[in-house]
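Appendix C. Worked example: Large ribosomal RNA subunit accumulation protein YceD
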Amino acid sequence: MNNVDINFAKKIPVTFDALKCAQKRIDYSGVYAKSLFKSRFGEAVESIESDINVSVSFDFDLERRVVINGKADIEVIVCCQRCNEKFKKTVGVEFHLSPLKDIALADKLPYEYEPVMVNEWGEIDLVNAIEDEFLLSLPMFTKHELDVCHVPELVRTFGEVLPDSDKKNPFAVLSQLKKH
Ligand SMILES: [Zn+2]
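Step 2, the predicted output written as structure tokens:
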């Protein structure tokens, strides 16, 4: 074995026959190329900085339902909505998916599972499912942690309590201050 082999991250399939994988109790860990995520998740962030680390395991739950438990993470650049500076962030998700042939059955799933649709060949698209999880985990407004944000202390403190309608006017904070 040489060093190249040790560092070479394992690629994993995009689609799976979840039932067969559950019967074999298959576990995978590896990476997805970031290019697979660029059309949807890539549009929701400034840029994608890393490939996607994924680990999944296929199994049955106590009710003999096929379940796919896993986690994934990705590094992205997002823009702080408070100070407008771009910064790097790791988005990590944990998921519990259950494959369904008919979306109408989604209502019957226990709440801890997310439905994932099975295509006509009996396969699920794991990239698509993980991309959904990433999109759902993005906050509506990305922001730095307060202690690293670059908005000056005064604006930051007052800016937090101002209603949204004042956001568009950069002088709204000053006019608020003058009233006092
Ligand atoms: Zn900031």
